[in-house]
Design a protein that fits this description.
8 strands, alpha/beta, 16 helices, 60% helix, Rossmann fold, elongated
Length: 457
């Protein structure tokens, strides 16, 4: 299912109509039943017996995330990723919101190398969990940036921290985050560096640059670690003394916005994010299963190609070899249908082979005529043709099986359907996609090797 379609369906479940276009900002509403639907879908994905163990093992980390999301839904937590450029003050902002030193803060950029999380003290009953992330422009670049995006992807809400006008990299990152379909808040950190008029002007500029990505009310000025103030006192003797006065963080507006979202929308956002993540995981699982089936189908088709090619080459009775080959093709299609979970009866398989063969004959009549001629020739050409004519005919039978197998596979992948353009177009595309010469060369070499081995015995 396309991700935008899934998002629209979940918006309908959760009653999110009436929000600005392009800005997923759920209103909460009566979402209890919707959260139950999401939780049920997560459990179904975790318990799905059709997912092969090998694929579960490959995607073990993703399935663990789904389990964690189920627990988060039960606990009613809202996970918030604090995201942004190196040295913009992400860790400091997290600490200021928490009211304690939960995240490491350093003067050297690149302090945060692993994602960390801590429950917001003042909102513990609302279940807010902050996730600090590495900077998007770390010197160690790609790996840490990927980690930051991964964390943001599984978070329910993102607070993007900037300390001035947005750079091109920051704006690009915001656009990518907006595509993950979760609400964004932009925190203008170090706002104490600006005068009132300059700060308001910068906020207006940021709201204009991020129009369509987030709500204007979600661009908020903060000061996570305000610059200490220097004060001068004069003692009784007239001597001046300079003192450094620590200024408390100014994050009240952002804190209130987060708490408000948590109260009104926290459970809804968690359900949305869990559902979207489950949708992506389902797509990954489907792709892995399809890939596994393709590999198994390739081996299956090749085994039937070999059996059919050798059988046709060794059968001394004219034309009868082609009839035997048709039976092998039908058996192959039955096996393919079981592999793709859409079992066909022998009669249905025979009809499918007949449809494919008819289209192949229309496309490649001359080649099929040559095969019939070779079959007749084999009956009157004595032993010499066994290594010459028979090998060539066996190779043609091999090639025909490849075409029939691939065409049948396409039919099954589409859910027993040829699609809007019908069997003729589908078979023609299969023929065009395969390298006939290389297949015939491989087939002749393998069949000759088998024939020589049989003759030596």
């Amino acid at each position: 299912m396309a991700m935008d379609t899934l998002w629209q369906r979940m918006r309908g479940w959760l009653g999110t109509a009436g929000q600005p276009a392009d800005i997923p900002h759920p209103s909460g509403g009566s979402s209890t039943s919707a959260q139950g639907k999401v939780a049920d879908s997560l459990r179904q994905l975790l318990d799905d017996p059709t997912i092969p163990p090998a694929i579960r093992s490959e995607l073990a980390g993703d399935f663990t995330r789904i389990e964690n999301m189920l627990e988060r839904l039960d606990r009613g937590e809202l996970h918030i990723a604090v995201f942004g450029r190196v040295s913009a003050g992400k860790s400091a902002l997290g600490n200021a919101l928490l009211g304690r030193e939960a995240f490491e803060v350093g003067v050297l950029h690149g302090t945060t190398t692993l994602a960390e999380q801590a429950t917001l003290d003042e909102a513990e009953h609302d279940g807010l969990v902050l996730i600090d992330t590495p900077g998007i422009n770390e010197l160690d670049g790609e790996a840490r940036e990927r980690l930051a995006f991964d964390v943001a992807e599984i978070a329910d809400l993102v607070v993007f921290v900037a300390d001035g006008d947005l750079t091109r990299d920051e704006l690009d990152a915001l656009k990518v985050l907006a595509q993950t379909q979760r609400p964004l808040l932009l925190a203008l950190n170090k706002a104490d560096r600006y005068g009132d008029d300059e700060r308001q002007s910068l906020l207006a500029h940021l709201r204009e640059r991020t129009r369509g990505l987030l709500l204007a009310d979600d661009v908020i000025a903060v000061a996570a670690r305000p610059t200490p103030r220097q004060t001068i006192d004069t003692d009784a003797a007239g001597h001046e003394h300079t003192h450094t006065q620590t200024v408390p963080p100014d994050v009240a507006a952002l804190r209130e916005r987060l708490l408000d979202i948590a109260r009104r929308e926290g459970k809804t956002l968690s359900a949305l994010n869990a559902g979207l993540y489950a949708g992506r995981l389902t797509d990954q699982v489907s792709a892995r299963i399809a890939d596994t089936r393709r590999h198994m189908a390739t081996r299956l088709i090749r085994n039937y190609c070999l059996a059919k090619g050798v059988a046709v080459a060794l059968n001394p009775i004219p034309v009868a070899d082609l009839l035997a080959a048709a039976g092998l093709d039908a058996a192959m299609v039955v096996q393919l249908s079981r592999l793709y979970g859409l079992p066909l009866t022998r009669a249905e398989s025979g009809r499918l082979v007949a449809v494919i063969s008819a289209q192949l004959a229309a496309l490649m009549g001359a080649i099929w005529g040559m095969q019939l001629a070779a079959s007749a020739l084999k009956g009157v050409s004595a032993g010499l043709s066994v290594l010459v004519t028979a090998a060539a005919q066996g190779a043609m039978a091999w090639y025909a099986t490849v075409l029939i197998g691939r065409a049948a596979e396409r039919y099954l992948v589409a859910g027993k359907s040829w699609g809007e353009l019908g069997a003729k177009r589908a078979v023609a595309e299969v023929v065009a996609s395969l390298d006939r010469d290389s297949i015939l060369r491989e087939a002749r070499e393998e069949i000759l090797r088998r024939l020589k081995t049989s003759a030596a015995r």
